[in-house]
Amino acid sequence: MVRVGWGEENAAFRQMFTSLFVPDGSKEQIDWFNELQRKTTSPECAARSFNVTNNIDLRDLLLELRMPTLIMRLRDDAVFRVRP
Fold it and tell me: 20 to 30 A from 82, CA-CA: which of 27, 71, 72, 75?
C-alpha cells in the first residue's frame, strides 16, 4: 500500500500517518506534514522504512543497559505506545 499511495498528489493515504503523528494538529499543520512526507521520501524508501521499523523490538536489549538512560518520545502521539 505504501508503494502505491505514498507519492500521490492526493494526501488521503499519507493522512493516515499524519493523524497518528499529529492527532490534534491544525489544518495548516496537517497539510504541511502531509506534503512533507510526500516531498522527503520516495514511495520505495517509505515502504522499506515502514518494513524495517515495524519489525524492531529492543525490549530485551533494554534490560542489559547498566547506566542512566533517557528515552524520549512525542507526547500523545498514536504511533509509539508505551508498553510495560
Answer: 27
